[in-house]
Amino acid sequence: MVRVLIMSGYGINCEKESAHAFNIAGADSEIVHINDLISKKKKLADYDIIMFPGGFSYGDDTGSGNAFANKLRNHLWDDLLEFIKSEKLILGVCNGFQIMTHLGLFSLPSTDYGQRVHSIRWNNQNRYECRWVHLKNNNSKCVFTKGVDVTHLPVAHGEGRFFCDEKVLEELEKNNQIVFTYCDEKGNPANGVFPINPNGAMRDIAGICDSTGRIMGMMPHPERAIYSVNEPEFHLKKEISKRKNNNIDEFIETNFNIFKNAVNYFK
């Protein structure tokens, strides 16, 4: 069975939702504290997928995801590089994306792992945003997003604004590494307009992958939007379906596919 390591530590708070999403997709998930990896009670090499979940690791006191990233870099960096070289998968959501950003896991053709190429900055409106958004999948390379077009899911962050210099942006676009962008419900670009783009991200970017397509980070939370009942419009959609003598789907497949694609990669 495909084994998933759900990274945990002080301030991480989305471990159970993340483990549940992978488990119902057919994997065997285990929530592991970073200290148990450092002490060698657990080993990265024993897993097929690593997920960095959302939360507020170490209170985000030195910047969102920074302290957790430094702890991993100082103690587990060589193990993480071996994991990547083994052509396994890594997914980061929200704070997990911030951790991966600090670690420099989004390699370009011109860079190596460990070189940071972008930042995730404070939202333009300088406040925490918790709302549902739409995303457009722009990518044919990324392992996680096959079969996903437009999807609907929540954001919950104070620092979610993607930023990089123009040279990096060019390379991301050229190498097909921009995965998700904010859009309206029909898939039209947000064009930076709030609240369709909830944080002011450059080019509406909500998620990217590394040059191989096996490592992805994103700000919105697919693990919080697996079931149709999670949607704020669920009861309206249920009533519309009922009056048409239809049943509403149990899953939001476009979000569930992110986890199923990862598991199926190994099958």
Describe this structure in words.
With 267 residues, this protein is α/β, with parallel strands linked by helices. The chain has one domain: 3-Layer(aba) Sandwich (Rossmann fold). 29% of the residues lie in helices and 23% in strands. It is built from 7 helices and 11 strands. It has helices spanning 15-24, 34-38, 66-85, 95-103, 166-174, 234-243, 253-266, and strands spanning 3-8, 28-33, 49-52, 89-93, 119-122, 129-137, 150-157, 159-163, 178-183, 205-209, 215-218. A 9-stranded mixed beta sheet has the order 2-1-3-4-11-10-9-6-7, with helices on both faces. A two-stranded antiparallel ribbon has the order 5-8. The protein is globular, with a radius of gyration of 18 Å.
Radius of gyration: 18 Å
Taking the alpha carbons of the first and last residues, their distance comes to 9 Å
CATH architecture tag: 3-Layer(aba) Sandwich
CATH fold-level assignment: Rossmann fold
Helix/sheet category: alpha/beta
Mean pLDDT: 97
Shape designation: globular
Main sheet?
9 strands, mixed
Quaternary structure classification: single chain
The CATH homologous superfamily corresponds to: Class I glutamine amidotransferase (GATase) domain
